[in-house]
Model the fold of this input.
Amino acid sequence: MSSAASVADENWFQEPALARIFALLNQDGEEVRVVGGAVRNSLMGLAVTDTDLATSWEPEQVVARAEAAGIKAVPTGIDHGTVTLVIDGRGFEITTLRHDAETDGRRARVVFGSDWQLDAERRDFTINALYANQTGNVIDLVGGLDDIASRTVRFIGDADARIAEDYLRVLRYFRFFAHYGAGRPDAAALKACARARDKLGKLSPERVWKELKTLLKAQDPGRALLWMRQSGVLSAVLPESEKWGIDTIGGLIATEVALDWEPDPMLRLMAMVPPDAERMRGLTSRLKMSRAEADRLVKWSEAPVIAPTLAITALDRLLYRHGAGPLIDRIRLSLVSARSRIEADASALTDAAGHSRHLARALGWEKPVFPVAGADLIARGVNPGPQMGARLAALEERWIESNFSLDKSALLDAQD
Done:
């Protein structure tokens, strides 16, 4: 890639709000530059969603200058040098040049400075340490342009030293490899990640799950997961996958592409772990998943496997009892399995057709409403209490077994 790389023609770079920031902070011998993801993504032809900047001004000075210019300044991470300027309803993170004075692998004490080289060298990967100045020219102090050209994810300087500053960088490495890398991983990076795998237990579970989930959102995380397994990192953070493996991931990605499914990190996780409710409860607790995520994973593990030959009426009854969501997850993975076997097993084509029919039914299914309520039984002389609950449950079961065909009158007559 040319050393004269530029982002000047990019739409995001020409935004008036960004021009205001350049005008505000490129004064009195100090400077501000765009840094990180916006520059990286532009050079790789990817969408830019956030525009972060680095500056030689200290954070308190950024706040003072912004407020004097009528720009809202929010001290979102001022202890670490970060101030968010809000312009036209959009936030821009401005971080003062800095280097780590000391770190324990989780937290760092930073020292502010004015040296762009030191600021670049404290960052994690070469492709994340590219700056763009006010004219849009890209400034490369660590060899990031060549690595973008080859789609190489490489630590800046010594990989072990970068990881020791924050062990989360092990997971970040594989996440970036999943989204931006090509070919084999950088050998030095892979070896350093393997050496640090036993340190990952120091990290907060929320940070671990956030990185894993973002990795699983990649268009094709298969290669990254393979190298995570090879290095022992996957077993360190997701031991449930050790014996279950990642062999289903390739088939799942192929099915997503063929059937135009949206990438779903939770479904991809399900493809990697055993459908064991007790173990899934342990996993969700350990990674501190959200309630919705935990509920989905556990209910999937508790749902029955749907045979491809199951009658639609029987499927409807299962959908009512277990809910559509868990069964849709089960059916999707069964369909993936069948599609993956087609070349070697002629019967798999028939299985895939059955699962496809079930999936279409489940996706369009609407839960019917049980027509009998407690008031109906009271009108028939049933007293409120356990007896009423038992009768309602028995009537509901009869209604389900009728494939939801019995109406209120038929059900009430049956219980008399």
User: Anything to note?
Assistant: The mean pLDDT is 93. The chain is about 50% helix and 10% strand. The two ends are 83 Å apart (CA to CA).
